[in-house]
């Protein structure tokens, strides 16, 4: 059964496949993923029956697509392949146009007006005109850097893209904005996140950011022009799935998908996306880098903690007591992630 905006736990829309990108338009959720398929779900129904509207030629779940509902078309790129346009019918996709070659894997795609924008592993952001078989792709933005562009979206004539500051630690994960109406747009730093910003969406004045590295959701108030670090809202419980892959927000709901053989698609009321006030606190970890004992401020009660290496192995765990410390003396030098109560995730540098 569907649930209202007061629900506190996620509702399952689909389960059991490595789902990829999702987007919600009106009352329809479009998804990529398993078998390079594009499927839809009617969000007005209670059983969420899937309708497969098209299957690509490959099997890679990392299919990227952008839907243009006014033209009833979807633009699709499979792993490393060209972009092509297809008409959405009630039961299938009909190829209507071969698009431009990508010059690399397409990592993000969005539509604004009559223009399709996409970013590749090059890394560049390119664009071409819809419904014009002779349209030549052009470079919209070239960062003149080999640093990756992970993804991109467009909202209100602003293109947002995510990247990183360096290839070596410490790394800052960054989101920038570009004015797509400008002739020579200049990137503006919007915010930073402690882990990779793999997927993001704008709803109203709020930028929601999802990381596939710690399966957490962050937020940035776009009415605040300062480029402060995004605020952690929630670490998503993905069950036995592998990673968070895609997020969207529409109406009263927040939607997300996960990868792996037990991946799924879920939604939760936006009002209940953030963690409870009991778990919201200002935390300080010191010293960081640390040689032996790590201390925390802002913890006022016994709090479970876990420390993970970057390959995901849990190396230390216990219950943190206020005004004490965590003994890390036996840990090898390197970078670790401290998880507090499954909500807060903080990088720790061990000397």
Automatic annotation (TrEMBL):
Pfam families: DUF5050, Por_Secre_tail
Cross-referenced SUPFAM superfamilies: Tricorn protease N-terminal domain (SSF69304)
Keyword Signal: yes
Keywords attached to this entry: Signal
Domain of life: Bacteria
Domain Prolow-density lipoprotein receptor-related protein 1-like beta-propeller, first and last residues per copy: 105-273
Keyword Cytoplasm in annotation: no
Secretion system C-terminal sorting domain mapped to chain residues: 285-344
Database matches in InterPro entries: LRP1-like_beta_prop, Secre_tail
NCBIfam families found in the cross-reference section: Por_Secre_tail
Official protein name in the record: Secretion system C-terminal sorting domain-containing protein
Organism: Dokdonia donghaensis DSW-1
């Amino acid at each position: 059964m569907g649930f209202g905006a007061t629900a506190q736990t996620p509702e399952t829309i689909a389960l059991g496949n490595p789902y990829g990108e999702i987007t919600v338009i009106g009352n329809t959720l479009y998804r990529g993923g398993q078998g390079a398929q594009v499927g839809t779900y009617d969000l007005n129904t209670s059983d969420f029956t899937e309708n497969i509207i098209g299957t690509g030629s490959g099997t890679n779940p990392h299919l990227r697509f952008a839907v243009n509902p006014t033209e009833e078309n979807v633009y699709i790129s499979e792993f490393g392949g060209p972009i092509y346009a297809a008409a959405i019918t009630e039961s299938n996709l009909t190829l209507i146009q071969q698009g431009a070659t990508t010059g690399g894997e397409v990592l993000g795609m969005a539509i604004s007006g009559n223009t399709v924008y996409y970013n590749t592993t090059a890394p560049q952001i390119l664009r071409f005109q819809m419904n014009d078989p002779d349209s030549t792709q052009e470079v919209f933005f070239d960062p003149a850097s080999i640093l990756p562009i992970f993804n991109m979206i467009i909202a209100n004539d602003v293109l947002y893209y995510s990247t990183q500051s360096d290839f070596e630690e410490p790394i800052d994960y960054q989101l920038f904005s570009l004015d797509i109406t400008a002739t020579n747009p200049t990137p503006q730093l919007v915010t930073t996140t402690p882990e990779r910003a793999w997927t993001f969406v704008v709803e109203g004045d709020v930028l929601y950011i999802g990381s596939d590295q710690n399966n957490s959701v962050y937020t940035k108030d776009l009415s605040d022009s300062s480029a402060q670090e995004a605020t952690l809202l929630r670490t998503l419980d993905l069950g036995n799935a592998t990673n968070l892959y895609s997020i969207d927000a529409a109406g009263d709901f927040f939607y997300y998908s996960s990868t792996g053989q037990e991946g799924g698609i879920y939604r939760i009321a936006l009002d209940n996306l953030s963690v409870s006030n009991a778990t919201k606190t200002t935390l300080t970890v010191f010293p960081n880098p640390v040689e032996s004992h790590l201390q925390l401020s802002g913890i006022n009660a016994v709090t479970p903690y876990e420390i993970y290496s970057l390959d995901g192995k849990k190396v230390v765990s216990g219950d943190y007591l206020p005004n004490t410390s965590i003994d890390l003396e036996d840990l090898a030098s390197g970078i670790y992630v401290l998880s507090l109560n499954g909500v807060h995730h903080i990088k720790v540098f061990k000397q």
